[in-house]
Amino acid sequence: MGDTGAWRANQGTAPRIVVIGSGSLARSLCYSLATEVRAPADVLILARNGAKAAAVAFVSATRACVSEVPVSFHGMGADLGGLDEILATHQPDVLVQCASYQSPWERSTAPSAWTELIAAAGFGITLPLQAALVLDVAETMRAVAPHCLLINACFPDAVNPVLLEWELPVFCGIGNISTLAASIQFTLGRKDQSALHLLAHHVHLHAAPAEARLWCDGVRRPDVGDLLARLRSTDRAELNHIGGRAAARLVAAILTGADLDTHVPGPAGLPGGYPVRVTGDRIELRLPPGIDTAEAVAWNQRMALDDGVQVTDGRVWFPPRAQEHLRPYLPAMADGYPVGDIRPACAELLDLRDRLRG
């Protein structure tokens, strides 16, 4: 895959990181950056709610101080759809997008006919709500901070392929397979993930019709479900503490140029999740023995259908289950749509959500 763009416009200065969002994954990432990044760095947290951004920055900065880590944190409120001036001025080296229009926790915090629809059709139908903001940010980055690496936390298994279709560079995602792989690493008592090769999709955070695929020391493991049992019985919000820590290690490796064998969703815009090696601003697949890129991608695309959406050939496609549940509300959308129509699809879904929440 190689590098995903120019790097380090800020030569001679501390690396600059922008984190967009103030939810649980963004908080976990920032709190982990405060202890994981051992070299000087500057982190700017942007959120719709400036008070929340400031609070995350304060806690992170205090953690860094107590840990004797030379990382500074700042928070501010911002219109997440209009970051041109901020990014042009700040010129980040790495931007981590954690904000979207749809919370994954809504079903437990505010159940409604809308969350029932998502549960029935599959999380994949919310793709435009996950993609719209990161598309805005990626377009802004290309215009005003083209050297910056984009890391996307919002449903990267499906959103990163949309970015690729839009010809917007994305380094990788965080969460999902990163959390699964960390859990397996712990369960097996491994010091790192170099001998682990996991293929897994967002859908595998829960038990799925087809299980994730795992190789340890080059040997296929038949007991993936057993290895993931504790993770799957843990509250999803708690799992963000694992995903955020793994993401901080990734960012630290990018900034220092260290080699890191890990697992990420959506590397360079691929669908689903893969084992990778990161070295600075380079990311390469490190697939299990006997599996090539085409087979790994094809497998992840099949898993995408179990999650309710597939992005391929310039279109967003839905499997029969998702079509059946979408059609009574959005019949035109149910048959799929071009990836170029993500923004109007987002507007339609926001309107439907308002009606069903009522």
Question: Would you kindly provide a written description of the structure presented here, covering whatever features stand out?
Answer:
The protein is α/β, with parallel strands linked by helices. The chain has 2 domains: 16-173, NAD(P)-binding Rossmann-like Domain (Rossmann fold), CATH 3.40.50; 177-306, L-2-Hydroxyisocaproate Dehydrogenase, Chain A, domain 2. It is 45% helix and 18% strand. The chain is built from 15 helices and 15 strands. The chain has helices spanning 24-36, 50-66, 84-90, 106-109, 113-121, 127-144, 156-165, 177-188, 224-227, 229-232, 236-256, 293-306, 320-326, 331-334, 342-357, and strands at 16-20, 41-47, 71-77, 94-97, 149-152, 172-173, 196-199, 213-216, 219-221, 259-265, 273-279, 282-285, 310-312, 315-317, 337-338. A 6-stranded parallel beta sheet has the order 3-2-1-4-5-6, with helices on both faces. The chain has a 3-stranded antiparallel beta sheet with strand order 7-8-9, with helices on one face. The termini are far apart. The model has no long low-confidence stretch (mean pLDDT 95).
Helix and strand arrangement:
Layout: E1 16-20, H1 24-36, E2 41-47, H2 50-66, E3 71-77, H3 84-90, E4 94-97, H4 106-109, H5 113-121, H6 127-144, E5 149-152, H7 156-165, E6 172-173, H8 177-188, E7 196-199, E8 213-216, E9 219-221, H9 224-227, H10 229-232, H11 236-256, E10 259-265, E11 273-279, E12 282-285, H12 293-306, E13 310-312, E14 315-317, H13 320-326, H14 331-334, E15 337-338, H15 342-357
Parallel strand pairs: 1-2, 1-4, 2-3, 4-5, 5-6
Antiparallel strand pairs: 7-8, 8-9, 10-11, 11-12, 13-14, 14-15
Helix pairs in contact: 1-2, 1-11, 3-6, 6-7, 6-15, 8-11
